[in-house]
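To: structure subgroup
Subject: Chain for Friday's discussion

All,

I'm putting the inputs and outputs inline so they're searchable in the archive.
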Amino acid sequence: MTFEKLGLKEELVENLYGLGFEYPTEVQQKAIPEILKGKDVVCRSETGSGKTFAFGLPIVQKIDAETTHVNALIVCPTRELVMQVADELKKVATDKEVRVCAVFGGSTIQRQIESLKKCPHIVVGTTGRLMDLIDRKALKIEDADFVVLDEADEMLDMGFRPDIEKILYHTKGDRQTLLFSATISDEVKELANEYQHNAKVIEIGTANKAINKINQYYIFANKKYKKEALSELFYSDVYGKTIVFVNTRQYAEDLEYFLNKSSVACSALHGDLRQNSRKRILQNFRDGKIDILIATDVASRGLDIKEVKYVINYDLPHELEYYVHRIGRTARAGESGTVINIITSLEQLSYMREIEKATNATILSFDTDSENLKQYFVDTKKLAKTTNRFTKSKNYERDFDKDYSKRSDKKPRAKAQNQNVKTQKPKANQQKPNNNNKQNRQEAPKHKSIFLGKFDERENKLLERIESISEEEKKHNKKSISKKLNKVNASQRKNKPKNKKKTPQQKKLWYSKFIKK
């Protein structure tokens, strides 16, 4: 089928031929006629299938270039996708004099307001910047005939549904709403039922069809030498355009510094970069000046970069959908690709098995001939044996005792304090110990004073005086002993210093003596 049979005008068809497009893709063949009829569309198609031209060509054809208001609004989740969609539409809309404007965060808003004053026909932007411009009354979309939600499931996953609903609230009711995405989730269906009218559902191929064209492998590396394993991978087995995905900005910057220090040229792409630097890095990667791009999930969706041979997941994503979006950067437009996952624990290995079941794919162990790379590998069988013996065993104490009994340097295990120990009963012929015998008794400990300092000395003196009394006096003259003890206590009381406070008169006398001196 050709573009003429889809109902496109000759101006657009000639422009497409000049750009090198001879035949429409499957999604373009099914979506363009329905959009030209004025129907709402919900389209699911794999990445790299030509969704941008599927909604862009009929919108450009139906726009009247003489109008001065916004005719079409295209909402995208990321800045990179906004720039990509705007660039593709500008190539097609130049001959028809249809103006396209891109608005997104990370760039000065005053320039974007000035470009909106030139009355563009198509506005492409992110949700946050569109809401900001609407609140400032710099963007008016009340007369927009088309609203396109590109990568709708991604925007809903990122929590942009309230912003999407506010944007749709500012548009008119008889608009034409188009939803394009790689997957159709339940939230996308709810959004379509609420804001679309008798939408035409178009599904191209089976879900995750591109995964069948991707060879997936994993490397179980030592966690301490994970960076070294990645750098050695580029020297031994990976050649060509490669995207390395990490989970955080800090990991991207650290990995960029380490690889460049290891003589592996690369650049990091994350959300905190300025728009000029992001654009420069992507352009260098597309032109082949840089073969390795370290990116966060901000670049895992919507970017159309050709000839990406490898995708390396340095960090596994937390959700399955992000894994599908990441590996979708390779094997685009019918080509094949390779994915390598670097894992460091048995938990990540089990999570990867769940990914296999969910995607109906097989992830094999990566084989290499490089001995330098193999030195960073971990034997999963040995690791599983050591962990399963203790951590995963139901009879933990029994297995521990078995392993402990085999050790040569074992020591007797201490009994618990609360353990009930049974006393051994004496045998019939065995004699019981005589507790009444004075020889078996232990002597009572001598008196030890608990007092310190002067009180300790006084008490010791008292004890010495008491011991000086003869035994005869103790037996016959108990009264004399008590009298002597009372005398000793009375003498100590008299000798004890008394800390009395001085009266005000005594203080005056003391001060007066001091002044006279």
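Points worth raising on Friday:
Residues 450 and 456 are 8 Å apart (CA to CA).
Confidence is low (pLDDT under 50) at residues 389-423, 435-455.

D.
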